Amino acid sequence: MLSIQPAKRSKEAFRKASLGTTALRATTWSVTAAFVLVLVIPAVFKAIKLLYWRTDVGFFASMQTFTGDFIVASGLAGLMSVFCWLWGAGRWGRWIYWVASGTFVALVLGLSVLEHQVWIRTSTLIDWSILSYTLRHYDELAGVVASESNWQGQALLIGAASLAFVPLAVDAFATLAIRRATPPTKGKIGFFFSVFAFFTATSFVFSAPAELQALCKPVAISLMAEALTSDETAIRAQDPAVEIPPDQSVRMVRQALDGAEIKRGNRKVYAKNILFVLLESTRFDASSVYFPELRTTPRQEELAATAAVVQRAYVDIPHTSKALISLFCGFAPRFSFEINESQIGGIPRPCLAHVLARLGFRTGFFQSATGTFENRGQLVENAGYETFMAQESYPHDRFEKTNYLATEDKVMVQPVLEWIDKDPSRPFFVTILTGSTHHKYDTPNNFTKLNLARNFTGRAPIPASSRGYFAQYLNAVRYTDEMLGGIVDGLKARGLLEQTLVVVVGDHGQGFEEHGPKFHNDVIYEEGIRVPLIFSNTRLFPEKRWITGLRRQVDIAPTILSLLNIEYPDSLFEGRDIFTTPGHDRVYTTCWYDRRCMSEIEDNLKVIYHFEQKSMEVFDISVDPLEQVNLIRDGADRIRYKRIAEQAKQRIEAHLAEMQDRFMIVKGERPWLLIREPKPQYPLPVRAEDAFELIGFDAPTLEAQPGKMWEANLYFKCLKPSEPGWRLFYRLQTVDQRSVQTDYFPANARFDLSECSPGTIVVDQLRVWIPEDFPPGPTSLFWGSVYLKHRGPKHYTNPRLKWRKLIPRKRGILIRSRGVLLARIEVQEIYRPDLANLLKQSILTNTPQISQPQGVRFGDDLVLEDFEIEPTRVDQTGSVRVSTLWRVTGEIRGPWRFFTHLYEKKTGKYVGESSSTPIQGLHPIANWRAGTWIKDSFVVELSRRIPSGNIDLWFGIYHDDARMSITDPGKAVADPTNRVLLGTVYVVR
User: Fold this and answer.
1) pLDDT, tens digit, for every residue of 842-874?
2) Which residues contact 665 (CB under 8 A, 6 or more apart)?
3) Mean per-residue pLDDT over the chain, rounded
4) What is the C-alpha to C-alpha distance for residues 407 and 443, in angstroms, rounded to an integer?
5) Burial class of residue 553 in the structure, from the number of CB atoms within 10 Å of its CB (0-12 exposed, 13-18 middle, 19+ buried)
6) DSSP alpha helix (H) spans, 180-245
7) What is d(CA 440, CA 720) in angstroms, rounded to the nearest whole number?
């Protein structure tokens, strides 16, 4: 028995040794497989890009782009050696090894696949600036991402990331299967150390070519490294210059306008109104004004018959929000990725709408896209427009969405014409931004599509992968042209077309892979940066007139003022009047993405500088309009063109720096921070939980005028920093309980509550806009702190997640609806003549003529003497106007409003309602005085939900859940719920 035991032990030891050897092989090969995956998959993706990359560096230099991958391989091998050492350090070491190496490899593979998917769909190489921008604005860009995403790409992304854990799972299974066996790790450590040494030595042999720096960087590693090292706040802190603060920007606009002499000239023939049509993503060669055989824009061709047509109009940046600055304001926007112009005070110079408003113009901006995208509403407000209407403002029951941003463009036709009709006594400046030509170029189902792409044959070498989209795009251009025709027909029917200057221009072009990139943000070729531009008016241009020379979008604003016979200082705009000045000597355009591409056009010679993306390009547009022959690479005189390109490169860099400096100021002191606690004119000790304490405010007056700012200095003391996302808000509440709330950052957006340190005292320069339609009388101003999900520019639909509780430190301080009553501002009488006339016509002191006396008494002091409904037969989507006449016998307290209920007469079923404040909100019931008569009319909008047939209209007066009682129905029909029957209308389909 004793002699058998050693044999058994020997057999057991042999079995364990065999298992150990098997485990060692499994783990070695599995980890090696993970390592190879990280090297091979990104390398394959890079090889694919090189096959399509337009460069002249040659095959050997192209292979040098793998230098960065060699360096990463050496670093990765060293990292794997550390992981292997951890594997042999015990159970916890193995778990760290499995999790750390698996996560790292998954990140590398996932980011590599993601980057390649983006490149396949857009031909854009992403970096951390693009990725971080997308993540920060994902709520806005989700539709863009979803439109280009498909299940194959998502599966590939998930599969690549999951693939990283397969070798690790094999390793874990092999190790855990032999729990007591611990295979040696020296072999693996030695293997990866050898790989580390090899690739480190190899990386010194090659040098990366300058023309392909963008491809040289290993994408996944670069993204992770930039994400870890990117600190924009620290970078801005070291910069001696900063963005112009919002308050200074507003002052600069006001001072420029106050110091400018703006007046009408002496010419007899000029336009009085402006219709400014911005065509989304519309390139010049998609318009049949320039290429009649296309048949895409017949209505624009009609306009061009009596117009000035610009042959070569270029954008500054091929991105809508940036292009709007050039178009609206007559100067180039910031040459930067961030859209600073859409932040409060983001435009430090006056724009066209500011100038026209000084001369009494009404200004309105309409777009079919959502108003929240890129904070468009704030940008439009910064540009001086009084009215802004977007997708959220229109009815949607009769119109379709054509892409992830916009409803079909015809949704704007009726609102635009109604806005024009509101005040015919004043000239108008109305701007329309279309949306149907945005990717994915869908048109409504009832729109007849034509095969327009066949007429484009030979114009540009569009790859097969984009021809389907291009055919849709041309039909979307034709649909948008129909919408424009509807508005032009409306102006013609009103007799306004001859008095109106119609300006039609593209905000930027659109690429369909003619030169690789798709869409527009980084399409620096003619299809991306050259747009149609038409100035049409039958009195100014009896026939078509072509404008030659290099022209820019910044030239439009001064040209419009010239055609309107308005004189202005030349310093007001960067652009030039195209009718009195020659074209520009040079035109510069930059891609939206930072330092990706930029072009210089001088006469017909175009130089494209791709920074570190790829080699420069030079084209002669006169003989090569499609930009197919790069003269540096394929021209007979390559040396000369290389010298020209290098000289242009220096001018481009200098121009880029100059454009950025225009929006910067040298850093100074921080005047919004105080050393000692002030003694405000209006003390208001209120504590906002444990975050800060309100001290009070100073204000020159507690009176305000509609359409102007009320300003005050507000003081509060910081108690501790707030988490990111907290803002301040103010809410205006009128005597008729209308309210307007605005969220903002303290000190004109120069201070964040997260920067609070205990004891810091902040001066908040509070600037409150009093809307023009606010009624005269006391308006309550409430103030508080609110937490929002998003930071940065305000969002129209941003949910208020929570408010800070305010605790008064003194009796008599009113807290209501999470805000402290800061002040009661006395709003003065209306200063606008048109609104004053409306009030004058509506408030009577003498007894008017009454056709059908009703004598309905509400309460003790209001008598409804007469009312009328017109029309009594109305379309299902039409509207009914109700006119009322009131006799006031005493004072009425409280924020009362009118309501109208709609009931189907046959069944008695409720089908709709509306509410209003008298005289368009200008004269609420609380302001009515005894002895006066009030004439008021309001509109009741119908909808498709209302059935055809007879509909009863019931009327009453309410506040919150209470109704003013009817004490005497007079000759009218009243019901027990304090409503009076106005009458019946017949609704037809």
Assistant:
1) 998 888 888 888 999 999 899 999 999 998 888
2) 241, 242, 243, 244, 245, 248
3) 77
4) 10
5) buried
6) 186-203, 213-216, 219-229, 232-238
7) 48
